[in-house]
Write the structure tokens for this entry.
Amino acid sequence: MKSRTDEPRLYLKPGHDRPVRRHHPWVFSGAMGRMEGSVEDGGLVEVFTFEGEWLARGYLNRRSQILVRLLTWDPVEAVDEAFWRHRLERARHARHALRLEEQTTAYRLVFAESDGLPGLIVDRYNDFLVLQSLTLGIERWKPLLVSLLQELLQPRGIYERSDVDVREKEGLSPQWGILAGEAPPPRLIILENGHRFYVDLLRGHKTGFYLDQRENRLRAARYLIGAGEVLNAFSYTGAFAVYALAAGARYVVNVDTSAEALALAAENLRLNGFGEDRFENIEGDAFEVLRRFHREGRRFDAVILDPPKFASSQAHLNRAARGYKDINLQALRLIRPGGALITFSCSSLVSPELFQKIVFAAAEDAGREVQILEKLSQSPDHPIRVTFPESEYLKGLICRVW
Ligand code: SAH
């Protein structure tokens, strides 16, 4: 092994050491002073202050705005096989400690930076793992990570779903396919809090299912006990609808632009014992459908809003805020007095405070009184690392509307 003095070194510009010292896991390209030694993109670098004090160690990619993703702040911790094994074991241990297994067979095993494994996502669906590699650094270690996952978890198969746009920023093209073991069936049935869901690992959104909403579905269900009509906007494959009907709601209307997602929603509802008399699926733009319902005088006892990310960069934040406000306004107008609004934003750029202000502004415009009953976040298999505020992305409010 090379001694540490031979490793390529990156010296920060003067005064750029503070985020690194505070264990933020990213070094932006603007913070780079000079490099010593040569290293290929994706390789490891030692990060120093301008003055030459060692700070941390991570992997580099000059093509990305995020120049270095930091892996360790411990000078004696080498980034080798033992390092990756230890981090994966830690993530596995943390998930085991959540005691999900009896009622839930799908959860996030590795949540990237939050688990000290920048750029790596691993989700478990029954006996299969789905891996997402988001960075060049992880690409380099992928074969080792796959063999460690096989050794530690003995899955039936590991499937790759690195088909996400953010890879472009790393100079990577999309990739998918079998990495190890058996190919997953085109569809499998997972268990979540005792409910059953078909998941399409090969073509579904994200790695197949919105695992981050698991706890929120339970929390929402408590407010849907005995509800008459529930509107589930941005329904995807109907997960909230299943929880709503299981809680004793009479009828659910799912709205989504994706016909494929709605087809699977119908199957999921049937799989859990709910027939066509209990639900309706509407393929369409939620913004338009909710406006139409208002014109038609159609009203609901609860509305669930779980839209996709409206803001992917600071530049789009204003537009996103207008989108969130509009959809919440449209929802509020449809809710019977005393009913519930269960509303989410998964844009990390929209802070919980901003989201609450947006809902407040929508309530004002709708002329409705809104009480917040619960504030929601992402499920605990998607931990928020305190030194990495960007890892807090999902927020929700359960409101009573008068
Ligand atoms: N609530 C779902 C996840 C929702 S993800 C769950 O618990 O599984 C967001 C969904 O919004 C996607 O299914 C996407 O197809 C849908 N979508 C995106 N834009 C939309 C629009 N304008 N109107 C309706 N649905 C939309």
Remarks:
- The mean pLDDT is 96.
